[in-house]
Every structure is written in structure tokens, then in C-alpha cells.
Design brief:
The protein has 123 residues and is mainly β. The chain is 0% helix and 50% strand. The strands form 2 sheets. Strands 2, 4, 5, 6, 9, 10 and 11 form a 7-stranded mixed β-sheet that branches. A 4-stranded antiparallel β-sheet has the order 1-3-8-7, with no helix packed on it.
């Protein structure tokens, strides 16, 4: 299974960040698999942002829930991230990754990762 993130490298403060994770070699509707978005700000550790499961159920980090939305397009085998009202502190490398039902034990159990995409929030 391969995951590839894509999206704009630069976003202005207060705008909406939109990222795409294209999955190949496996289906995003595979039972009991969860597709997560994770980010790593410069000089900091990995932060789990949220996930969407094979059933379509979503789960979000409480600290980001008000600004984050994860969705998917089954026909395109693609998972999306939207984050509203971005601020400079949202500058990070953003990853998509997949895990089984124990996805909440992040970072354990994450078998598949994309290479990440740099997003900078700046005017």
C-alpha cells in the first residue's frame, strides 16, 4: 500500500488548508482500517490530527476538532483533510498514514505512511 500526500505548500493565515492523500495498492474501504492525518511542526514531535474509518466514521483530536474535517472519495480511493482558519503555528509537514482498529494507540500500529508534504502558513 502506498500513500501520497499533495496540496499547496503555502497557505495564508485565516485561509483553509486542503490536502489530498491518494492511496494505491489497497482500498480505503478495507474493513477495520483507519486513515489518519498526522503532522509534525518544525522542531516538534508528531501530532495525530484525526482519522476516517472504513465505515466512514471520523475521529478527531480534541484540540483540532473545531477546525478540522476529514473526508474521502471511495471512487478515487482518496482521503482529504481540510483545516479552517489556519495560523502560522499550523506550519508543519503533514502525513497521511493507515492503521488498524488500534489506531488510537498512535504511533503504534501505523503500518503505512506517505512521504509527507510541507505546508507553510505565512502571509
Amino acid at each position: 500500500v502506498q500513500l501520497q500526500e499533495s496540496g499547496p505548500g503555502l497557505v495564508k493565515p485565516s485561509q483553509t488548508l486542503s490536502l489530498t492523500c491518494t492511496v494505491t495498492g489497497g482500498s480505503i474501504t478495507t474493513n477495520d482500517y483507519y486513515w489518519s492525518w498526522i503532522r509534525q511542526p518544525p522542531g516538534k514531535g508528531l501530532e495525530w490530527m484525526g482519522a476516517i474509518g472504513s465505515s466512514g466514521r471520523t475521529d478527531y483530536s480534541p484540540s483540532l476538532k473545531s477546525r478540522t474535517s476529514i473526508s474521502r472519495d471511495d471512487a478515487k480511493n482518496t482521503v482529504y483533510l481540510q483545516m479552517n482558519s489556519v495560523i502560522p503555528e499550523d506550519t508543519a509537514v503533514y502525513y497521511c498514514a493507515a492503521a488498524g482498529p488500534t489506531y488510537t494507540l498512535f504511533p503504534k500500529g501505523y503500518n503505512y505512511w506517505g512521504q509527507g508534504t510541507q505546508v507553510t502558513v505565512s502571509s
